[in-house]
Amino acid sequence: MNTTSMPRVLVLGAGFGGLELTTLLSETFGADIDVTLIDKSGAFVFGFSKLDVMFGHKTADAVRMPYRNFVKPGVRLLRQTVTAIDAEERRVTTDGGVHEADFLIVALGADYDFDATPGLAGANEFYTVAGAERLRDVLPTFTGGKALVGVCGAPYKCPPAPSECALMLHDYLVTRGVRGACEINFVLPLPSPVPPSPETSRALVAAFVERNIGFIPGRRVASIDNARKVAILDDGVEMQFDLFLGVPRHRVPDVVIDSGMAENGWIPVNPRTLETRYPGVYAVGDGANTGTPKAGVFAEGAARAVASDLIARLRKTGSGTQYDGFGTCYIEFGGGRIGKVEVDFFSGPKPTGTYHEPSVALRADKEVFGSSRRARWFGL
Ligand SMILES: Cc1cc2nc3c(=O)[nH]c(=O)nc-3n(C[C@H](O)[C@H](O)[C@H](O)COP(=O)(O)OP(=O)(O)OC[C@H]3O[C@@H](n4cnc5c(N)ncnc54)[C@H](O)[C@@H]3O)c2cc1C
After folding, report:
1. N or C: which end of the chain has fewer CB within 10 A?
2. DSSP state letter for 157
3. Which pLDDT score, from 0 to 100, does residue 335 have?
4. Which pLDDT belongs to residue 319?
5. Is the domain defined by 114-250 classed in CATH 3.50.50.60?
6. Matching InterPro entries, A to Z (predicted)?
7. Mutate-to-test residue for ligand 1 from 23, 37, 39, highest number of ligand atoms within 8 A of CB
8. What's the confidence (pLDDT) of residue 291?
9. Predicted local confidence at residue 380, as pLDDT
10. C-alpha closest to that of 164 among 188, 136, 191
11. Where are the domains of the chain?
12. Per-residue pLDDT band at 1 (split at 50, 70, 90)
């Protein structure tokens, strides 16, 4: 292939999905491919690092992986903000210009819809780095009263993350010697902490009971009255709090909504090929409606399927391997112990999950999960 005849691949979003997809294309074609990867931010951060920042285990600077270290043959990473997507024409406008593509992959993740939950903008959340940093400063001032971990809607990123937050908060308060003066409650819109794995859910619920964490499943926080320090649930029940730790409602970024690609907040795709209804346009990761959880491991799995399809199409050798809907999630149980659940969405008639009990040994596995991706994508 020469530069003039090379198909142009345009990937929007350098998160889990975009980084893995472009890495695979670069590994396969080297400099013989024309990939442009666009992201508005200057660095990548693992979702789970927000919990580390919030509880003061790591600084925000320590968990940022600057995009300047993402250097791959055949891939050009541009720091620009996508302002319009014309999926029909595969033409994307950014604050830096207009990009046309033969293949367009939308990997812009999920955004937070603060307006969907009145009062949330005036409360604390731990799903952004800025929110986690604010909580890092607020938590030391909490020495007694009611803490409420409240999820404002589903689907949300990483189903076990709010459970992890409640368990880590318990540990944090025990370490500071104030747990006896504090109450922890946890409101979750899902019927159980990890619905595809009843065993994992049972273990988490048992951990809440052991630690005296009040668990309210099947309910979401519908609004917050910050003046009265009350969260109002979707059934009208009011819950008092002194400290609110929220998970905002999620949906695709505004630019995707404005493009007309989304339906009910998410981009419809063929769940096994990630193709959208627009020829040559795919969506991977949290923004795509595949029926699998919104988590980095699933974004990566989807990226592998799209990469294999693009490789087959560019080589004119048929079609690629389908998305398997399989992912492994690590779960912080507190006390330095990590559990693990392997979830399989597509190989059986219904999703299943295999649970691995929490242990200190699994912490090493989680560390490898992070360090292997850091090395693969950023060479660090
Ligand atoms: C607290 C917490 C804990 C988590 N724990 C885990 C875990 O243990 N394991 C796991 O697998 N997942 C975990 N996740 C989920 C994981 O972080 C996400 O599911 C994953 O990042 C999704 O990948 P993505 O590629 O779809 O989107 P993202 O990684 O969110 O990437 C999207 C990118 O698009 C960019 N972007 C958005 N809009 C624009 C625009 N207009 N112009 C240009 N760029 C734009 C963003 O800057 C971003 O870099 C966790 C998440 C949270 C919040």
Report:
1. C
2. B
3. 87
4. 86
5. yes
6. FAD/NAD-bd_sf, FAD/NAD-binding_dom, SQRD
7. 39
8. 96
9. 83
10. 188
11. 8-110+252-324, 114-250
12. very low
Does pLDDT of 2 surpass 50?
A: no
Reply yes or no on whether the pLDDT at 4 is more than 80: no
Mean pLDDT of the chain: 97
Q: Is 93 in the pocket of ligand 1 (CB under 6 A)?
A: no
Give 275 Cα–ligand 1 centroid separation in angstroms: 20
Q: Using the atom order of ligand 1, give the atom closest to the CA of residue 110.
A: 30
Question: CATH topology of 8-110+252-324 equal to that of 114-250?
Answer: yes
Of the candidate ranges 3-17, 33-47, 347-361, the one whose mean pLDDT is the lowest:
3-17
Q: Is the pLDDT of residue 117 over 60?
A: yes
CATH top-level class of 8-110+252-324? alpha beta
- Residue 52 C-alpha to ligand 1 middle, in angstroms? 16
Separation of CA 20 and ligand 1 centre (Å): 12
Q: What is the full DSSP assignment across 65-107?
A: EEGGG---TTEEEEE--EEEEETTTTEEEETTEEEE-SEEEE-
Q: Could you tell me the distance, in angstroms and rounded to a whole number, from the CA of residue 110 to the centre of ligand 1? A: 7
Q: How many CB atoms lie within 10 A of CB 24?
A: 19
- CA 22, CA 285: separation in Å to the nearest integer? 14
Residues 6+ away with beta carbon under 8 Å from 79: 38, 39, 40, 41, 42, 67
Distance 131 CA to ligand 1 centre (A): 15
302 lines ligand 1 (CB under 6 A): no
Instruction: Summarize the confidence of residues 174-200 as an average pLDDT.
Output: 97
Ligand 1 centroid–CA 75 distance in Å is 20
Is the CB–ligand 1 distance for residue 13 below 6 Å? Answer: yes
β pairing state of 337-344 and 326-334: antiparallel
Q: Is the CB of 125 under 6 A from ligand 1?
A: no
Going from the Cα of 159 to the center of ligand 1, the distance in angstroms, rounded, reads 13
Is the pLDDT at 311 greater than 60? The verdict is yes
Q: What is the largest CA-CA distance in the chain?
A: 69
